[in-house]
TrEMBL record:
HAMAP family listed in its UniProt record: DNA_mis_repair
InterPro entries to which the protein is assigned, alphabetical: DNA_mismatch_repair_CS (IPR014762), DNA_mismatch_repair_MutL (IPR020667), DNA_mismatch_S5_2-like (IPR013507), HATPase_C_sf (IPR036890), HATPase_dom (IPR003594), MutL/Mlh/PMS (IPR002099), MutL/Mlh/Pms-like (IPR038973), MutL_C (IPR014790)
GO biological process: mismatch repair
Domain DNA mismatch repair protein S5: 217-332
NCBIfam families on file: mutl
GO function terms (MF aspect): ATP binding; ATP hydrolysis activity; ATP-dependent DNA damage sensor activity; mismatched DNA binding
Tagged with keyword DNA damage: yes
Gene Ontology CC terms, in alphabetical order: mismatch repair complex
PROSITE patterns according to UniProt: DNA_MISMATCH_REPAIR_1
Gene of this entry: mutL
Lineage: Bacteria, Thermotogati, Deinococcota, Deinococci, Deinococcales
Protein name: DNA mismatch repair protein MutL
Basic and acidic residues bias (residue ranges): 542-551
């Protein structure tokens, strides 16, 4: 669990001066039950709670209750809690707004809940004898003594009952419950070291016992997803990211928190995660990730959104670079061969091996003149020869691109460009020339090609010059990589071109690659199937109980014979 030592604040509550309150005013706090849940959970986390229980009835309009075992509110301050801009989380000095270290800070949550419904607070610090309770509705506040365990329980009943116009515009109860469940799931993902429980209309919907990020993924998305995530640990970045085979067409499972606050991830951070995968992800898909980003309190502003779901970062490019590096490092530390399609519907997914080296594979045969069958680490491997050859060619071109001076064309070649390509040429011209591609605007929608990188000039690729220019001036963010990926595909072995001799050469070339697990376009190069999976699929009752190759590589030879 990530700790933020400055979060637990002084228990003394005070009303912020008007000049400070104006600095943090950011709009209405409570416009739906979801807002009440978010604000109360933030308060519980700020109080240092290790157990947080949330109850919702009637979609939250009838009741929202959040119970925690945090620090509690002292008897001398509890009467101030429902007042507007009354908070223990900021000092009365204006400069305190520039260094917020808590999830809540405006002092509006309880006041807004009392304006929208009936607020009931029962709280007791552990060292205090007896608890206090507060009943607040509108501006009417009543304080009394009570008996309760240490911590705080906040209940909000009959939301918007006095505001019929607002009540009529609320979402159906089922829709609000779905949003509340998703919100609590995000808190579980980013605060996995706590006890969590969500109860809806008396039915427990979500529970989580303290664990790590992988355990939180299991609680929210199930054990199958949890078995396919890798730990991420970098400078100011911690969490998990899914293996390349666990992807979605949408980015709805890319979760980011900043200093413990779940936020809507800026597009720059989502893009950094995807870029960290490099060629391991096909275009148009997104991984599952849970990343906790930590920055200095003064380097972020959580006061740019009424619900604090958006934060402004002082150094967004720097944070994105750290996220990209952390994701790339996590992926490079693990072998990323994907499991073969399950031979039976109930087959369990294969856990990741514990080491990242590409195994030594022994060629067994060729299937359909395109796929290689090989044995290694006790598993059966199927290699897509085209994808593997493409990966090897791509890395070879990458290594040799700048090894020799550019090749001058005997006669400059004129090529037609679209207006978009011409605009990109003006933007990228110096970059292209830096790696040997000299392309000059010739006017009238034409460009003059004068030099090619020496590594690309001799390639036997149809329409070589046109393909290079089209890729270099395409809409991708990395023209150099786009050119090399396109040129590596054309000469790679195709179906019908493969034999045993070429197959062994492909295996050797793939083993020498820095990133052997996927082709430059994100397709897997290899799939693997363990002996145990085969035994189960064939219904062998006396199957040898040996670890799968992806569980633990055997210490002996490539396999052990048996009946």
């Amino acid at each position: 669990m990530t700790r933020y030592p400055d979060r637990v604040t002084s228990p003394d509550i005070h009303v912020l001066p008007a000049h400070v309150a104006r600095l943090i005013a950011a709009g209405e706090v409570v416009s739906r039950p979801l807002d009440v849940v978010r604000e109360l959970v933030d308060n519980a986390l700020d109080a240092g709670a290790t157990r947080i229980e949330v109850e919702v009835d009637g979609g939250g309009l009838r009741l929202v209750r959040v119970r925690d075992n945090g620090g509690g509110i002292p008897a001398g301050s509890v009467g101030l809690a429902p007042l507007r801009h009354a908070t223990s989380k900021l000092s009365p000095q204006a400069r305190s707004v520039e260094g917020v270290t808590t999830l809540g800070f405006r002092g509006e949550a309880l006041w807004a809940a009392a304006q929208a419904g009936e607020l009931h607070v029962v709280s007791r610090p552990a060292a205090q004898v007896g608890a206090c309770e507060v009943l607040a509705q509108g501006e009417d506040v009543q304080v009394a003594r009570a008996s309760a365990p240490a911590g705080t329980t906040v209940t909000v009943r009959n939301l918007f009952a006095r505001l019929p116009g607002r009540l009529r515009t609320q979402a159906p109860a089922a829709s609000e419950v779905r949003e509340v469940t998703a919100l609590l799931g995000r808190y579980v993902l980013h605060h996995p070291g706590l006890h969590w429980r969500l109860t809806v209309d008396g039915e427990v919907r979500l529970t989580h016992a303290p664990s790590d990020h992988r355990g939180a993924v299991a609680s929210v998305y199930g054990p199958l997803s949890a078995n396919r995530v890798l730990a991420v640990s970098g400078e100011g970045v911690r969490g998990v990211v899914s293996r390349p085979e666990l992807t979605r067409a949408r980015r709805d499972r890319m979760h980011v928190s900043v200093n413990g606050r779940p936020v809507l991830a800026p597009p720059e951070l989502e893009r950094a995660v995807i870029e960290g995968f490099g060629e391991l992800l096909p275009a148009g898909v997104a991984p599952l990730c849970v990343l906790d980003v930590t920055v200095a309190p003064g380097d972020h502003n959580p006061n740019v959104h009424p619900a604090k779901q958006v934060v402004a970062l002082a150094d967004l490019p720097g944070v994105a670079a750290r996220v990209r590096a952390a994701v790339a490092a996590a992926l490079s530390a693990h072998p990323l061969a994907r499991a073969l399609p399950a031979l039976r519907p109930a087959a369990e997914p294969a856990p990741a091996p514990g080491h990242a080296a590409f195994p030594a594979l022994t060629l067994l045969g060729v299937y359909q003149e395109l796929y290689l069958l090989a044995q290694g680490e006790g598993d059966l491997w199927v290699v897509d020869a085209h994808a593997a050859h493409e990966r090897a060619l791509f890395e070879h071109l990458t290594r040799t691109l700048g090894a020799a001076p550019p090749a001058e064309l005997p006669e400059p070649e004129l090529l037609h460009l679209t207006p978009e390509q011409t605009a990109r040429l003006h933007e990228r011209g110096p970059e292209l020339q830096g790696w040997g591609l000299t392309l000059e605007d010739f006017g009238a929608g034409l460009a003059r090609l004068r030099t090619l990188p020496a590594a690309l000039a001799p390639l036997n690729v149809p329409r070589l010059h046109e393909q290079i220019v089209e890729s270099a001036l395409g809409d991708g963010p990395d023209p150099r990589r786009d050119v090399l990926a396109r040129l590596a595909c054309a000469p790679a072995l195709k179906a019908g071109m493969l034999d045993l001799g070429r197959g062994q050469a492909v295996l050797d070339a793939l083993a020498a690659c820095e990133h052997p697990w996927a082709c430059p376009h994100g397709r897997p190069t290899v799939l693997r199937l363990g002996e145990r999976d085969l035994a189960h699929a064939f219904g062998r009752r006396g199957a040898r109980d040996v670890p799968r190759g992806r569980d633990a590589a055997p210490t002996g030879g490539p396999g052990v014979s048996g009946s």
